[in-house]
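User: Hello! I'm new to structural biology and keep hearing that structure can be predicted from sequence alone. Could you demonstrate with Glycosyl transferase family protein? Please show me the input and the output so I can see what each looks like.

Assistant: Of course. The first part below is the input, the amino acid sequence of Glycosyl transferase family protein. The second part is the output, the predicted structure written as tokens.
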Amino acid sequence: MIRELAAAMPSNGAPDGSPHARWVGWLEVTADDRARGQVEVRPVGADHYRKARVLLRDDLDLLDFVEAEIVDGTVTLPIPTEPTTREKSDPAVALPISVVVCTRDRPQDLAHALASITALDYPEFEVVVVDNAPPDDKTARVIAELADPRVRRVVEPKPGLSNARNTGVGAARHEIVAFTDDDVVVDPHWLRALARGFARNPDAACICGLVPSGELRTAAQAYFDQRVSWASTLVPTRFSMDDQPAGVPLFPFQVGRYGTGANFAIKRAEAIEMGGFDEALGAGSPTRGGEDIDMFYRLVMAGRVLVNDPAAIVWHRHRAEASTLLEQATGYGVGFGAWATKVMLDRDGRRLAFTVARRRLRDTADRGLAYGAIAAPKSEFNGMVPRRVGATEIFSVLGGPWALWRGRRQGRRPVPLAATAGAAHSSLNRA
């Protein structure tokens, strides 16, 4: 029997005909599938694709990403025959969660994201849409048309993703605050997986999830897919200064291993205790990025536990046009450079960075070379993406210090929620 598979997210167009295009979806593996060792599926909307990429899963347990040819509209997928190793002691948890979506002038993408979030089968959650410096009422109209009492809109008038994130933290009514972007489709099990992550790791301040490509119809999207590490592992990892994770030699500075701002949940009290997100970092500020890795790094440096749990999935739509890659590469480079500058301006961070670099000199050199190799497009992308996109990102790192200085000159604060944290402590002391 041939099973139909829906795409991971709605497509914005037809594939560009490049050999990199992939139809993307996911499959819930059954016991019968395992017994047969393969399954035949019909990917919906794959008329112009030659290959499919499918995530195989067993409920919250991820098995593998597999790719296969599409032949006469169907795909034959190999299925692992080994049973999934489940943790029998997993508690059935459903923590109340506040979902925060920060957006600015992307009503169509936002509507798709909210449709996937409000369709979640989860007992108690709210959705806070932070409308950041809105130029018009398009976002307000999306919320009004949705007419879902779980979804509310708050406005953050000052441009900047960090400002919007901090407003979301302040508006959240629940202790767990889950952040995602407006250009994603969340997995049906997303909130269940985040709740399970906190239940398995009660000492965790933050759970980051998997962000696989939800659409691969252009060469630009395929380049970005191999460029980022948001879906590089299906194995959960704990990050703690008390127990250095294996395979992360430059910990705690290999920030790409923590996760990304499109998919993470943080305990609200911890976010406030850290002073919130640095307003000088992130999209909408001169630095154009880095606010997410800065928060992850600061949590770990402060002795908190961060867990990357790939079971919590958010499907992301990368930019489809090659012409936008240079701008995106510049933003990534400047944001990383600004964050690195902030680390080096901090005495403890600077000392630890020099210590790690000295002890791990070979790894430091290897990671630097690897960064350049990942950023540079492979030969298979010749003529399809700008050849200088890798060099643009690397050299843009040098603009980080200036961008951070400009952000501070604009009055963007490093710990804008510090007063909130102080008030909370005073209240506890009085009690």
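User: So the tokens describe the shape?

Assistant: Right, they're a compact way of writing down the 3D structure. Reading them back into a model, for example: The chain has two domains: 3-78, 94-431.
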